[in-house]
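Late entry, evening session. Most of the bench is empty. Finally got around to the prediction I had been postponing all week. Sequence below, unchanged from the version circulated by S.P.
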Amino acid sequence: MLGRVVLVLSLLWSCVALSAEVTDATGRNVQLPDQVTRVVPAGPPAAVLLAALAPDLMLGWPSPVPASARALLPPAAANLPQLPRLTGRDDVTAQIQALKPDLILDYGTVSPRYADLAKTTQQRTGVPTILLDGSLVEIPHAIRILGGILHREARAETLATFAEAMLALPISHNTHPRVVYARGTDGLTVAAPGTDVTEVFTRLGWQVLAPDGPGLFRPASIGAIGALDPDLLIFSDPAMRDTVVHNEAWRTVRAVRDGHALVAPSLPFGWVEEPPSINRLIGLAWLDGSDPTTLAALFSAAVYGRALTKEQLDSVLARTHSLQP
């Protein structure tokens, strides 16, 4: 009889030891295996976070990563394949199940849409799925939570402390520019205010301008951007360096004429967003006036685990000066 009791207790202890519970940003209690060794990032923000913390546990990238970006990442992250994207529109349940992940990680906006997506993804795949808050101020907390889940507490503490230092940098309150942030090779897809895409500007106290209308991104014309009359115009696509030079219509925009139009650095990931993950920390400091070369060197070493050569730094910062038509 005593032997049976010992056996039952032993089995119960094994079950406890093999699992742990975490409460994600949606308030869901998710049961996880104690040892998580295979992680699928649900979208690009989660992939950047995971690549910084534990690239050896990440099964791949959920969106294309160009060779120019991979060249600036450590091999553990640079050599990973592309995976189906869970936050896209297609049902990729079977492909994800075939990867046999221990965990699906989403990171970003905590909204009913993404809360439902995390819940539905777990139900469909049978894989524990969590959503962590991707807001700027929550970056250190999210890193520490994920570090505990993955048993990478030491690395997480280093990253979280670095993030806290970046967030604690004094913000200049001398100016409060009105800014338009635009995506696309034509610069005519404008980001709406009050979103994670434009959160960097909001934290700096800048006013984000966009055409009226619904949606995270809004179509615009050069004339419409000119009518908004931003003090600063920031493009995300490097192609805009040539577009502005060769399209005289951009001269009608005051920010362009005054030399206040810029292309945000985008390697290995965007400094303003694309994706809106921990990479935005460097954009926060850059837009507030910190030296971009120093920022790029320190951020790459601390966050991506890669010490860049002079040539690589030059490629990251190529043509970051103001655009002139």
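Two things to note before I forget:
The chain has two domains: 17-167, 178-317.
Residues 2-17 form the longest helix (16 residues).
Will write this up properly tomorrow.
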